Amino acid sequence: MPDLDILDPSEIEGIADKAITQFNDTVDRDMAELIVTKFTYDGTLDANVIGVDQGTLDATVRAFENKMTSVALAPVGLTLSDYLDCCDPADLPAIRSLVVKGDWRSIAEHASRIRAAINSQGDD
pLDDT of 87-107, one tens digit each? Predict the structure, then answer.
């Protein structure tokens, strides 16, 4: 697997698209739901359980991070690190669920509220 730090985001997205298609085509629905539920709950993914190599899993995670950042976070001036630092850990399962669903609008709305809160703290 090539170095993700030097790949173009579109190349990473291509790797992720292939991996997701393979996952959907080869993993039975019950197992897929279990994997997604576990990820939503604790944020962990196991390449061996999913049936891909670690590099492919890393590329897929990076593709989701890139999408979330470009669509939902960067427009309000947040990085992924900024956003996660401001999130209540109890909210992370709900946020991961939104990521899995590709609900970038809800994440963008949440990020906007976080940005507003950060800005209001600077006014104090």
Answer: 999 999 999 999 999 999 999
User: Which residue bears the tokens 């697997």?
Assistant: 1
Report the distance separating Cα 30 and Cα 56, nearest Å: 22
Give every CB contact of residue 24 below 8 A, 6+ residues apart in sequence.
32
Q: Quote the DSSP letter at residue 72.
A: I
Written as six digits, the tokens of 45 are 């993914």
User: Count of CB atoms within 10 A of residue 97's CB?
Assistant: 16
Kindly state the greatest CA–CA separation across the chain. Answer: 54
Backbone φ, ψ for residue 120 (5° rounding): -70, -30
Q: Cα dist. 81→16, 65, 119, 120 in Å? A: 21, 10, 17, 20
Q: According to the model, what pLDDT value does residue 35 have?
A: 93
Mean pLDDT of the region 1-27 = 86
User: How is residue 99 written in tokens?
Assistant: 């990521």
